[in-house]
Amino acid sequence: MASSEIDQKFLGKLARLVENENPLLSSVLFKILGLSINLSSQLITARKQRRQDGSSANPPLDLHLHIIWLSREGLLLLDQYVLPSATLKKNVELKILAYKLLASFYHIIVLFHNTPPVTTIGTNTPEGQSTTSVVNGIDKGKGVEKGNGTYGHGASKSISEGGPVGPPPGFGPQPPTAFLMKPGDYLPLAQQCFKEAIQLAEQHLWGSHSLRLSVKTEYAAFLYECVHDAEASRKLAKETISEVYEATEGIDNDMFNDACELVTVLGKMMKRGLGSNNTLRKTSNPGSQGTPRIEQTEAQAPVTAPPGMI
């Protein structure tokens, strides 16, 4: 996720690399790094509280709001400063990291803010669980309106664009996080961002590169916990491990250690969603574009999630 240690390593490394050439871009990357470290601690707190209070418990509203706010700020920084400056010709890793972080922040938005909710994480209040079929002109299930943003996803537009004045947060049909970010179905947008990040990583990075592994590991987690397609998640994890062993390029010790850690996580993901009789427990049809079911619990996912995952 955007809070993973591997992404943070690349953020610090690339911020130093462009410091002399582009001080503004360097400062923004350092800001995203600080935001990522803060977000990591918030997600860890939310995960611990869910484990202590039960699988169906929700994070406190202030923690929930803080997570959404940090994710929104990350999207704005990427959309306004990083993506316009990142080019493949100058730095391949920076371009891929920018797309990966974009997908990561939307992953968090889907977990905590999506309408309709895809997990029980984002349902803090009855208002958050039952919203009207049309919120601020967005039809549930049809996704978020796309603007003419730099990337094409319209992150700045979907985040900052105003709407009709409604009741205070927590009162009325809108979720309590609506004042931070426009409600809507961000699932298709997040999936699109992941696919584009993976496409770039496969074209320009070798199979054992830790940034490429980070992209695919989080996408496998996204498929399982948000799309609820356990079979696709397990298949991606298996294919990614094969690519690591087939890679012939040399890597340094730090990247080797990161690759080993991610391969271990992927190995656990290959078994995620399987019952004791090794039969796959499906919550939705693979590839289905309909609204995923919400009956996903911690009991169905005994395997520890990757760092920063809920």
UniProtKB/TrEMBL annotation:
Per UniProt, the ranges with Pro residues bias are 165-176
Region (Disordered) residue ranges read 145-177, 274-310
Pfam families given in the database record: 14-3-3
Where composition is biased (Polar residues), the residues are: 275-291
Q: Where is the 14-3-3 domain?
A: 190-267
Q: Which residues form a coiled coil?
A: none
Please give the superkingdom of this protein's source.
Eukaryota
Q: May I ask which residue range the UniProt record assigns to the signal sequence?
A: none
Concerning its family, UniProt says:
Belongs to the 14-3-3 family.
Protein name listed in UniProt: 14-3-3 domain-containing protein
Lineage in the entry? Answer: Eukaryota, Fungi, Dikarya, Ascomycota, Pezizomycotina
